[in-house]
Amino acid sequence: EVQLVESGGGLVQPGGSLRLSCAASGFTFSLYWMHWVRQAPGKGLVWVSRINGDGSSTTYADSVKGRFTISRDNAKNTLYLQMNSLRAEDTALYYCARESEMATIYFDYWGQGTLVTASS
Amino acid sequence: SYELTQPPSVSVSPGQTASITCSGDKLGDKYVSWYQQKPGQSPVLVIYEDIYQDKKRPSGIPERFSGSNSGNTATLTISGTQAVDEADYYCQAWVSSTAGVFGTGTKVTVL
């Protein structure tokens, strides 16, 4: 059974940093592109970042480019999101999601999310 | 930047058909997927496209869910809507080699 379990969220002051983790199980982690998607309270889904299977290719939404870094440790089956220079508008529930094997890019499994609150 | 626009809300009577639109420039040239999200839960994939742009349902998704995509509009259709289908629905497309976009979301209410 595919499982994605996020952790690392919490309360942080604006300008601070936080690292999110997503522990994967039930599939060969290194073979899949992985994504982070966020959802501000009461708002819609927003794509954040993407990384390929071996970690050599990454992509970011303009709103987080230069502040967030996506990475992965395939030996630990874990995806990360390092978030620096956090802003109030980064407050959201952060989901990790697995990209399908197909070339048409959709998300076939999602974690339960971890909440990040950037507030003083 | 690329935008996908959905109606904020759709109301439907039980047993009737609900249609949720998703509009974007030349969306018919892109692969669109749809997600259902119930309160307090993670999104769930309900419709995706294969490389031939055939619309597919993941295992476990009822046959009453179907999709179409042409021109500037993709549509998620729920036939014979049930109370359990009440949720928020989001379309999604990969609009370039470097960016993913979700629609604005539609709240489906089964009256």
Summarize the structure.
Helix content of chain A is 0%, strand content 51%.
Q: Layout of helices and strands, plus pairs?
A:
The complex is a heterodimer of chains A (120) and B (111).
Chain A: E1 3-7, E2 10-12, E3 18-25, E4 34-39, E5 45-51, E6 58-60, E7 68-73, E8 78-83, E9 92-99, E10 107-110, E11 114-118
Parallel strand pairs in A: 2-11
Antiparallel strand pairs in A: 1-3, 3-8, 4-5, 4-9, 5-6, 7-8, 9-10, 9-11
Chain B: E1 9-12, E2 18-23, E3 32-37, E4 44-49, E5 55-56, E6 65-70, E7 73-78, E8 87-96, E9 99-102, E10 106-110
Parallel strand pairs in B: 1-10
Antiparallel strand pairs in B: 2-7, 3-4, 3-8, 4-5, 6-7, 8-9, 8-10
> Major β-sheet of chain B, in short?
7 strands, mixed
In oligomeric terms, what are we looking at?
heterodimer
Shape of chain A: globular
Structural class by sheet pairing and helices of chain A: mainly beta
The count of β-strands of chain B is 10
What is the end-to-end distance of chain B? 36 Å
Order of helices and strands of chain A: EEEEEEEEEEE
Distance between the termini of chain A: 40 Å
User: Pairing-aware structural class of the strands and helices of chain B?
Assistant: mainly beta
- Give the integer mean of the pLDDT values of chain B: 94
Q: What amount of the residues of chain A lies in strands? A: over 45%
